[in-house]
């Protein structure tokens, strides 16, 4: 089967959509499918792409702000779509997806559209009028003409379905690359890189530094813990919105937390895996998260997690026994963090449960098989 992904960019610094596309494309290629990824901004395309058994990059010209394609890009995409059994589009708001959807319909190639949490209740409350107008005039048609609207959790499907009532939703978790976590490097790599004190408990946030991720909540929780006499170091890894980053640094200074909270910047590769291992607790006080790759990553390293119901897979995380689900408040996070830091047997048990859950529920082979079924069903259904 030939599968074509279309995405705006392959930039890991922008978060989960890039990670999802990279893993989905690589997983399908490993299953023996032909996979292309059409993109116009790809600084983080893997070095081994283009070789045998791997995806290939289809570089196209950037579209206009309204999604219009240059003649060269349209010609290239038409050729790729004609050779594809199914096209996989990403995010409901990318303007070029309307253009690509029409091209698919003109040829008769079915498409799947992943919404990546962008139709969740919290997301739809942000600039809600603009989003509702877009859906009314163009977006709903794109969603309802898809062979399947792809969601990664039942909670996401429940929230998103209201925006495409005549469409067909399908739940398949994202592909999680467990390979880097099977033989992790150990905590020393990160401790040496960032000067982490091994004798002081560490709380880790690792994600895009953006207001919706609730970093400010975690900083307040760190102040609460300090004032309560709970000794710990809070590590904030990631980059993001520059204004928000500056606000977080100002918050740390204003609360006199320089000895307790540190911002580490972007962390990748083995050092990132080591950083999860160096942490005693992983904390993500997010307002909204579709799948939240960082949570399975932390759990795969045996690090218990604390997060909110803003994560679409929160029921699965809670049921696994690996993750505490609390309110998005600094008091709730401080209480949960303190409880875990003072109970080592519980931390170890939750960490072991988390690692077991990741390797079973997110087993790459079984998840890839579900995508094979998704694409095969879409191809059999043809274009709507």
Describe, in plain words, how this protein is organized in 3D.
The chain folds into 2 domains: 2-176 and 363-381, Rossmann fold, CATH 3.40.50; 179-361, Glycogen Phosphorylase B (Rossmann fold), CATH 3.40.50.2000. It is built from 16 helices and 13 strands. It has helices spanning 16-30, 71-83, 96-107, 121-125, 128-144, 154-160, 179-182, 188-194, 215-227, 242-254, 269-278, 294-300, 314-319, 330-341, 344-361, 364-381; strands spanning 2-6, 34-39, 56-59, 86-90, 111-114, 148-151, 169-171, 202-206, 233-237, 261-265, 281-284, 305-307, 323-325. The strands form 2 sheets. The protein has a 7-stranded parallel β-sheet with strand order 3-2-1-4-5-6-7, sandwiched between helices. A 6-stranded parallel β-sheet has the order 10-9-8-11-12-13, with helices on both faces. Helix 12 (294-300) links the parallel strand 11 and strand 12. Helix 8 (188-194) crosses helix 11 (269-278) and helix 12 (294-300) packs across helix 15. 46% of the residues are buried.
Rg, alpha carbons: 21 Å
**Poorly predicted spans:** none
| CATH class membership of the largest domain | Alpha Beta
| Number of helical elements | 16
Across the major sheet, the strand order is 3-2-1-4-5-6-7
Mean pLDDT: 95
Number of strands: 13
Gross CATH architecture of the largest domain: 3-Layer(aba) Sandwich
What characteristic shape results from the CA principal axes? globular
Find the structural class using helix and strand composition.
alpha/beta
Number of domains: 2
CATH superfamily of the largest domain: Glycogen Phosphorylase B
Strand content: 5-15%
| Largest β-sheet summary | 7 strands, parallel
The helical percent reads 40-55%
Order of helices and strands: EHEEHEHEHHEHEHHEHEHEHEHEHEHHH
Amino-to-carboxy terminus distance: 20 Å
């Amino acid at each position: 089967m030939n599968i074509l992904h279309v995405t705006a960019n392959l930039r890991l610094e922008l978060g989960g959509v890039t990670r999802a596309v990279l893993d989905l494309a690589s997983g399908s290629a490993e299953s023996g499918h032909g996979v292309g990824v059409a993109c116009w901004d790809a600084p983080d395309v893997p070095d081994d792409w283009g070789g045998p058994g791997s995806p290939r990059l289809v570089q196209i010209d950037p579209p206009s702000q309204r999604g219009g394609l240059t003649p060269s890009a349209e010609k290239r995409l038409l050729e790729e779509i004609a050779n594809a059994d199914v096209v996989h589009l990403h995010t409901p708001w990318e303007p070029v997806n309307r253009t690509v959807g029409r091209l698919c319909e003109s040829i008769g190639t079915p498409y799947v559209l992943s919404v990546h949490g962008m139709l969740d209740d919290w997301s739809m409350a942000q600039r809600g009028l603009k989003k509702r107008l877009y859906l009314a005039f163009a977006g709903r048609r794109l969603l309802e003409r898809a062979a399947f609207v792809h969601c990664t959790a039942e909670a996401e499907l429940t929230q998103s379905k209201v925006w495409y009532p005549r469409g067909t939703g399908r739940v398949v978790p994202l592909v999680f690359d467990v390979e880097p976590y099977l033989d992790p490097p150990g905590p020393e790599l990160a401790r040496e890189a960032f000067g982490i004190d091994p004798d002081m408990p560490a709380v880790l946030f690792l994600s895009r530094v953006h207001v919706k991720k609730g970093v400010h909540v975690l900083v307040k929780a760190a102040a609460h813990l300090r004032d309560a006499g709970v000794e710990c170091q809070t590590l904030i890894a990631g980059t993001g919105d520059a204004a928000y980053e500056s606000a977080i640094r100002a918050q740390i200074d204003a609360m006199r937390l320089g000895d307790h909270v540190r911002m580490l910047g972007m962390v990748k590769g083995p050092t990132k895996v080591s950083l999860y291992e160096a942490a005693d607790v992983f904390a993500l006080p997010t307002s909204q998260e579709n799948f939240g790759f960082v949570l399975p990553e932390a759990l795969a390293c045996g690090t218990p997690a604390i997060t909110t119901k803003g994560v679409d897979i929160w029921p699965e995380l809670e049921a696994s026994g690996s993750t505490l689900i609390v309110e998005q408040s600094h008091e709730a996070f401080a209480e949960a963090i303190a409880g875990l830091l003072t109970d080592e047997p519980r931390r170890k048990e939750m960490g072991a449960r988390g690692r077991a859950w990741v390797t079973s529920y997110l087993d790459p082979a079984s998840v890839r098989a579900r995508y094979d079924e998704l694409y095969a069903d879409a191809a059999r259904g043809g274009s709507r």
